[in-house]
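User: Show me a protein chain along with its predicted structure.
Assistant: Here is one chain, sequence first, then structure tokens.
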Amino acid sequence: MTTRFLGDSTVLLGRSMRHITRSPDTIITTAIMPISMMLLFVYVFGGAVNLGGTASYVKYLLPGILLITIASGISYTTLRLFMDQQTGIFERFHSMPIARSSVLWAHVLTSLFANAISLVIVIIVALLMGFRSGAGVLSWLAVAGLLTLFTMTLTWIAVLAALSAKSAEGAGAFAYPLIFLPFLSSAIVPTKTMPAPVEAFANHQPVTPLVNAIRSLFTQQSVGSDAWIAVAWCVGVLVVAYALAMGAYRRKIA
């Protein structure tokens, strides 16, 4: 059964990846918005943020921009999955002798690959803007692990949204609150500069420990408890989103 699931998922992943390669504008579009935000905050608002100059602010800002990139990218996952349902390809797959869950996992894995490409593009632009890090290989691998876990978490939320949406517009719009969430965290400015109620929310939502952990890894500082809190948040949300998404999927194909 496991071999069959892996084989079916691989075949369907190839199908989804061909859609990506034939339409690279989705990856470019995903990267453009966070890059534009990074340029705007660094070169327009950066002077008002006293964090040690442009290069220092790029280093401070990049972790949050990476999370915004992921939140922006998973909206396409929702749209692709929703369109598969609308075109009847779901029914066609279900008439074949394949593992049912492989249909969803193919979209999830495609999201991981597509978002990884967008993240690399954003990091390259950040390097051109002056971002530098003395982080070693293990630190970069830890950053990659956290970003992968965050992508997986948001992607399963996206799957649930796609299975529940009534229109393509509704399927794509669900990502907007997720894109906005980093702005209410330590991603753009230190939380201590915020009004007390906003600071309290920012300090107790999942994006802040994730941003802090990635920032500490980039700057070769101790991550403290931030990494474990971030992982706990992501794993907890991932488990709930996965359970709800699989429940919605079983009801839809029943």
